[in-house]
Amino acid sequence: MHIHTTIAGLRAARAQAGRVALVPTMGNLHDGHIALMHAARQRFGIDAVIASIFVNRLQFGQGEDFNQYPRTFEADCEKLAAAGVDHLFAPNEAEMYPQPQRYHVEPDPALVSILEGAFRPGHFRGVATVVLKLFNIVQPETALFGKKDYQQLMVLKNMARELALPIEIVAIDTIRAADGLALSSRNGYLSANERVEAPRLHRQLAAVAEAVRKGARDFARLEAEALAELEQHGWKPDYLTVRRRADLQTPEPLAESLVASSLVVLAAARLGTTRLIDNIEI
After folding, report:
1. What mean pLDDT do residues 150-178 have?
2. What Rg, from alpha-carbon coordinates, does the chain have?
3. CA distances (Å), origin 230, targets 10, 68, 196, 272
4. How confident is the model at residue 35 (pLDDT cuts 50, 70, 90)?
5. Which pLDDT score is estimated for 64?
6. Is pLDDT of 255 > 90?
7. Cβ distance 76 to 29 under 8 Å?
8. What is the mean pLDDT of residues 66-86?
9. pLDDT at position 63
10. 129: Cβ–Cβ under 8 A, 6 or more apart, which residues?
11. How far apart (Å, rounded) are the C-alpha atoms in residues 201 and 198?
12. Cβ neighbours of residue 136 under 8 Å, at least 6 residues apart?
């Protein structure tokens, strides 16, 4: 695996790489990230897989853990090399932002003012800006992202479509531990007791999803019961809600055209000091 720390070095390698799949990350890699690397390798017609590691200050809000975000570069490189990644782009802040970033991508306010956007203002602006910059640097044919960050995936898909980017955005299913917990870099912050409790979030999502599949349409009641169950076990939920997959807006329960397969249930909640997110497509 070739490691590039400059844009010029990455572009020189990219010119010889053929058709490329890009997997952007912030490092501190786990099996969910590695699954993306393997999926990238398996994409039809791809000649090389490029991963990036860059902890993007723009997407961290006030009071969030930019400085505390784990940097595990050597271990990450070993995992990427073992997964068959061809090139790693690992710039520092001075390389990515040699001057203050004055131009930004402003996603659709209707999409980024809700759910994660309501609790992390400016987050998706930072994500979209750095991803567009990575797209411009790497110029991949394909880019892969996990479904665990469902709203982020939608923001990036919409950005690629509306800006006519010649890039296929591929969504990969969430990788989970045996007990259902979605793999996440934040899981490392959980204490031993919290780790035992953490799968409850997925169980509540699964219960709501199953009820909707069986015909339940009182979404407000289902959401309230799931939130109460989390709170009774020490969680501090931000939301647990059924939304339309197409735009993440609230569905009309009595609409004749509503089908369960058009919905997704999403949640974010704190367990101790750790904020976990998850979702299940219904």
Report:
1. 98
2. 19
3. 46, 27, 14, 12
4. very high
5. 79
6. no
7. yes
8. 95
9. 72
10. 58, 101, 103, 104, 105
11. 6
12. none
Distance CA 6, CA 99 (A): 15
Partnered with residue 193 across adjacent β-strands are none
Beta pairing class for 20-25 and 168-172: unpaired
**The two structure tokens encoding residue 103:** 């131009």
SS3 at position 181:
coil
Is 30 marked active-site?
no
Distance (Å, rounded) from C-alpha 242 to C-alpha 150?
Answer: 13
87-114 confidence digits (pLDDT tens) = 999 999 999 999 999 999 999 999 999 9
Task: Give the global pTM.
Answer: 0.94
Q: Of these residues, 4, 33, 123, 202, which one is catalytic?
A: 33
Cβ(41)–Cβ(126) below 8 Å: no
Q: Where are the beta strands (DSSP E) in the chain?
A: 2-4, 20-25, 48-53, 87-89, 142-146, 168-172, 235-244, 263-271, 274-281
241 contact partners, CB below 8 Å, separation of at least 6: 115, 219, 223, 250, 265, 266, 267
Distance, CA of 124 to CA of 142 (rounded, Å): 21
